Amino acid sequence: MKLLSFHLMPYRHLDFEAAAKHRSAWVVLPNSLYDPVLGADEYQSHIDFLVHSESLGFDGLGVNEHHQTAYGMMPAPNLIASTLIARTKTAKIAILGRALPLTNNPIFIAEEFAMLDNLSRGRIIAGFVRGIGAEYHSSGTNPYFSHERFHEAHDLIVKAWTEPGPFNFDGQHFNNRYVNLWPRPYQKPHLPIWIPSQGSSETVVWASHPDRKYPFLVTFSPGELVTRYLNSYRDQARKYGYEPSGDQLGWATPIYVADTDERAREESKRGLETLFNNYLRMTSEMLIPPGYTSLSSTKAFFKMRQNYATRDSYMTAENLVSGGTAVVGSPKTVRAAIEALREKTGFNILIGMFQFGVLSDELARRSIELFHTDVMPHLKG
Amino acid sequence: MPAQVSSVKIRDVNIKLHRVGRGPTVLFLHGANGLPQWLPFFDAIADGFEVLVPEHPGFGGSDDPAWIRNIPDLAMFYLDFIEEMGLERFHLIGHSLGGWLAAEIAIRDRSRLLSLTLMSAAGIRVKGLPSGDLFIWGPEETVRNVYYDQALADQVLAIKPTEEQLDILLKNRFTATKFGWQPRWLNPDLEKWLHRLKLPTLVVWGREDKIFPHQYADLWIERLPSARLLMVEKCGHAPHTEKAGEVIPAVRAFLKEAAR
């Protein structure tokens, strides 16, 4: 199994009481609540944590892009990737991902990835995402055109990576008279492209297409949905007439390991609950702006929110763990949870997030080290 | 007399058209929320006028063609609509997004227009004074921000829409997003052409408008060559419904005067 250590790089010093007075921890959370001196230390510890993961035998290190939020301090994940390149030797560096529709010139994304690929001599994995709904508020990008922009940017970037330049690109949103990438990517034919997703059927159909076969990563979802989404990718691939390999199926989840289940639950509780309740807190209007998903998906989403009245309901660590959104427990429990999902889906890429919410470095390190000694060998074996 | 509803086809787009009254034609262009219900305002104007209220492409019961991508496209579509419907001389009224649309139509071709009425119109901005954010407000918050009179907001909130009406509201919201998200409710190239609108123009605004603050009305007045302002006190974003008693006679008087 391919194992990645992933980090969101949250700002753990957030004053939750002050933050609760605002609509969300995204977009409108006043940045006066951010202290750069404390923030600088946060960057340091989060980056150290990822660098340490390489020495624990992880195949890859993962970062991602989020804007104007305390949830993650990486509006520019490639800057973190650049630091990681300098401080690591062999680990892949996965940017999961860049939000393609939010930019007005995708060539800059193609160039940055190509640079990183050269700097790292081919260690970069390029994740492509659309960004979450809130980012259409913070970037000003029109969510109605999100899908169009994503696909057009994708086509332009892949073409820029693979076809000799200069060439001309005629799009609806992006028009470039000269596309001529200096440098070209280090990897051939281009950097691997991975697609983190919340499981939308449109993404499954697109990512699994024989022309692409992009690894599909289901992120932060209850176990039942992870199983369903990964299997829907497999089913779609079979409809296309091929059998997908486990290396096309990934699962991203918070993981916490301690010597006993009880202790693991206790120690991870506050980290998990702050992640899902404080850092991810946003309104429906932010999460699903109009056009971000299709009319029917949007309607289904609002109906679901209405039925379960989740808007104001608190997500407890107990529910997150029992529902399989987070993997928490003794090494034996954690092994069993991962094995169970492997049996159900055949997935072969595990993206573990070992630090989450306000979880301290000390606890996160203890957990990832125990994962290293008591879980990893079984998954690698 | 109740409004007649028909479907008219303009190019490849079926438009749901409401029509009431007899007399000189008034074309009314609705706002970003579409036409969730028929307004007393239309019937009041229809006394002595023929009022046409189309649902825009992408709204309500009309088709949603992918090729209409922005308000300038929609304005060009309406030039086709005006020709196909044989509207030779008519009054144009637009509210909010419909006001923006009316101005875009008028700068392209004002030759058939008898008058222009812009109510709480989008399309231009006062720099440093952003519009209220309809896209971040929740549904109740939006209604409360649209009306100054909270008793009226309570009445609106008490209406529970049917499943079908909810579908239409969602469709309208998607289309409003397409047209208005970025730049927010604005065509940066509109303001510089407003000097061409040399025709009788009435600007109607609610003093307490929380979407487009009343200073926006001042900017319209500054840019339009022959416009006068009706500033409605204690009124929000929908003067023609919130203060119908004041707005209807003023608009009727303006239309009659402009028709001379």
Structure commentary:
The complex is a heterodimer of chains A (381) and B (260). Chain A contains 15 helices and 11 strands. Chain A is an alpha/beta fold. In chain A, strand 3 (92-99), helix 4 and strand 4 (124-129) form a beta-alpha-beta unit. The radius of gyration of chain A is 20 Å and the shape is globular. The termini of chain A are close together. Helix content of chain B is 37%, strand content 19%. The longest helix of chain B has 18 residues, at 163-180. The radius of gyration of chain B is 17 Å and the shape is globular. At the A-B interface, helix 10 and helix 11 of A face helix 6 of B.
In short:
Chain A is 46% helix and 15% strand.
Structural class of chain A: alpha/beta
Large-scale geometry of chain A: globular
- Please give the alpha-carbon distance between the first and last residues of chain B: 26 Å
Taking the sheet with the most strands of chain B, its summary is:
8 strands, mixed
Largest sheet of chain A: 8 strands, parallel, barrel
Overall radius of gyration of chain A: 20 Å
| Low-confidence parts of chain A | none
SSE pattern of chain A, N- to C-terminal: EHHEHEHEHHEEEHEHEHHHHEHEHH
What is the strand arrangement across the widest sheet of chain B?
1-2-4-3-5-6-7-8
> Which secondary-structure class do the elements of chain B indicate?
alpha/beta
The fraction of residues in strands of chain B falls at 15-25%
Q: What's the helical proportion of residues of chain A?
A: 40-55%
Distance between the ends of chain A: 9 Å
Helix content of chain B: 25-40%
**How do the strands line up in the largest sheet of chain A?**
1-2-3-4-7-8-9-11
The residue-averaged pLDDT of chain B reads 97
Strand-helix topology:
The complex is a heterodimer of chains A (381) and B (260).
Chain A (H helix, E strand, L loop, with lengths): L1 E5 L9 H4 L16 H20 L4 E4 L13 H11 L4 E8 L6 H14 L4 E6 L4 H6 L6 H17 L4 E4 L4 E5 L13 E5 L3 H7 L8 E4 L3 H18 L8 E9 L3 H19 L4 H4 L7 H14 L8 H6 L4 E3 L1 H15 L3 E5 L7 H14 L1 H5 L1
Parallel strand pairs in A: 1-2, 1-11, 2-3, 3-4, 4-7, 7-8, 8-9, 9-10, 9-11
Antiparallel strand pairs in A: 5-6
Chain B lengths: L3 E7 L2 E8 L4 E5 L10 H6 L4 E5 L16 H14 L5 E6 L1 H12 L4 E7 L19 H8 L3 H9 L4 H18 L20 E6 L8 H9 L3 E6 L6 H4 L1 H16 L1
Parallel strand pairs in B: 3-4, 3-5, 5-6, 6-7, 7-8
Antiparallel strand pairs in B: 1-2, 2-4
